[in-house]
Design goal:
Length: about 190
């Protein structure tokens, strides 16, 4: 009996593997489709989107209306987060809030799916800011949605990709009401657990 490495066995087990030039599946692999089917059936349905990178900041107020489109990968949206920084706390010390409006479709003309306002953003804030929808929103998997970020002053900024353009291929950043091709915000979309 000849010994083969685990990777060689896998190349033989999968006739469509790109490195499979001479292997053929053996009769001992009759259980492989059953095992794979069980493994796929136990994968959790929860799907999160995480577009995390380091980039430049832009003003929520000056770029309005601004936001990010995405393609839903789970039938629920529980939390939308994005990188937020405190640009001008000394000029606008009483502004501690941002609002997120989730709309169906690409852009800001679609039906409103949900709205959340965070009203207690602390001074010098520079981190992920979570907008929690309670109860979670229902969305259609594979459909496009856009969240709009609204601020009342020039205090708040959000992070966008700079050195690695177009980090999220299933959507785009929006600024001044139009798509910003090749640019995305630093954002996360979490499904209900």
């Amino acid at each position: 009996r000849r010994l083969v490495s685990r990777t060689a066995w896998l190349r033989c087990a999968w006739p469509c593997h790109p490195q499979n030039w001479s292997c053929q599946p053996t009769r001992r692999l009759w259980y492989l489709p059953i095992f794979c089917g069980v493994a796929l059936a136990t994968v959790p349905a929860r799907g999160d989107i995480v577009n995390d990178f380091s980039g430049n900041w832009m003003s929520v107020y000056d770029e309005a209306p601004m936001g990010q489109s995405f393609t839903a990968v789970d039938p629920t949206v529980h939390t939308i987060s994005f990188g937020v920084t405190d640009f001008n706390w000394s000029q606008y010390p009483d502004d501690h809030k941002l609002t997120v409006i989730l709309r169906s479709g690409a852009g800001f003309g679609g039906a409103v799916v949900g709205v959340v306002t965070v009203t207690n953003i602390p001074i010098y804030y520079d981190d992920w800011l979570d907008f929690v929808f309670d109860p979670p929103l229902s969305v259609s998997v594979g459909s496009t949605y856009t969240f709009e970020i609204k601020g009342e002053t020039r205090r708040w900024g959000v992070e966008r990709d700079q050195s690695t353009p177009d980090t999220y291929l299933e959507g785009h950043a929006w600024r001044l009401g139009a798509v910003w091709s090749g640019v995305d915000l630093r954002f996360r979309v979490f499904a209900a657990s």
